Predict the 3D structure of the following.
Amino acid sequence: MSNEATGANARSASLDAGPLGYLALGLTLLAFGLLETGVFHGTQVADAAGLAHLVGGVTLFVAGLWQFRSGDTFGGTAFAGLGAFWAAWAAGAGGAGGKNAAGLFLLLWAMLALTLAAASWQSGLFSRGVYGLLTLSLLVAAIGTFAGSGGLVKTAGWLAAVSGLVSWYWATTALTNSGWGRAVLPVK
């Protein structure tokens, strides 16, 4: 989750909100993505607004503040920024805005995701997976929204769901391996 530090830069693992943040991100992306694909009949993506607001918005934002407090600038930026995204998305879910406004919203947040993907590239496979797939998901969703292409929007939903699974697995490995004191779940 966080970069390892020693000496004066070391911080207690108990201050790491990384697993909480990645669980919140993973569950929100998974719910949003699966609902966007239309896999569950009789549902729509706006049905994820409550989860997106409380888990994706509030929990991620708090985890971000926690990461800032513990000295993790990347984790703080990622979680607080994505928490703001989900809170804003939940507030506007099912709103009256047009497709151009919705497409621009997605495109602007894709820029944040791209920044996070670039900044995390040296952090390993899971980091690249989460933020790279999130970037692709938001970019494809923006293009699909601008073009009015349901197929592209569904593809974006699948990308978001896979990103959510990667984020969820990353958090699960961190919690499980930490709890057991050894590598129980593979991380590479």
